[in-house]
């Protein structure tokens, strides 16, 4: 998987990398037990400090998306057990509210937003229990 960093966005580089890896996992571009590039290799490829890569990997490991096998590298974790419906709703509501506020501020109609969400959702892999 290729990663692209945009320093001018104001988003920290480790966060950009973290978000791209998480999206790669959600979209099925990175599969469970797939080995990621080493911190050293990725830092050389991206021309960034190795600590930046390590921070992104550490955050993703803390979130349960990656795991480390000492001496072997960093790997994509198996998908966690689905959270309860209540927990899913609570966690997603905050993000959804932020999206809705931004859509209103941009002058987006609800139909336009729903169309965009449906279009983007097609790019992700959904578990059978959450499909549809």
Order of helices and strands: HHHEEHH
**Order of the strands making up the biggest sheet:** 1-2
The N- to C-terminal Cα distance equals 27 Å
User: What percentage of residues falls in helices of 4 or more residues?
Assistant: 40-55%
Q: Look at the helices and sheets and give the structural class.
A: mainly alpha
Radius of gyration: 17 Å
Give the count of structural domains.
Answer: 2
Query: Architecture of the largest domain, according to CATH?
Result: Orthogonal Bundle
Overall pLDDT: 89
Provide structural commentary.
The chain is mainly alpha-helical and 132 residues long. It has helices at residues 13-26, 39-46, 50-62, 85-105, 110-121; strands at residues 66-69, 73-76. The protein has a two-stranded antiparallel sheet with strand order 1-2. β1 and β2 form a beta hairpin. It is globular. It starts with 12 loop residues before the first helix and ends in an 11-residue tail after the last helix.
Show the helix and strand layout.
Elements: H1 13-26, H2 39-46, H3 50-62, E1 66-69, E2 73-76, H4 85-105, H5 110-121
Antiparallel strand pairs: 1-2
Helix pairs in contact: 1-3, 2-3
């Amino acid at each position: 998987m290729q990663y692209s960093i945009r320093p001018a966005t104001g988003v920290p580089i480790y966060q950009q990398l973290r978000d791209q890896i998480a999206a790669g996992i959600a979209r099925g571009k990175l599969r469970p037990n797939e080995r990621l590039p080493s911190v050293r290799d990725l830092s050389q490829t991206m021309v960034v400090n190795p600590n930046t890569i390590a921070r992104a990997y550490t955050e993703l490991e803390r979130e349960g998306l990656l795991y480390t096998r000492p001496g072997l590298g960093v790997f994509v974790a198996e998908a966690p057990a689905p959270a309860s419906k209540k927990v899913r709703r609570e966690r997603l509501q905050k993000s959804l509210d932020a999206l809705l506020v931004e859509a209103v501020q941009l002058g987006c109609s609800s139909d336009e937003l729903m169309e965009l969400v449906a279009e983007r959702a097609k790019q992700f892999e959904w578990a059978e229990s959450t499909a549809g």
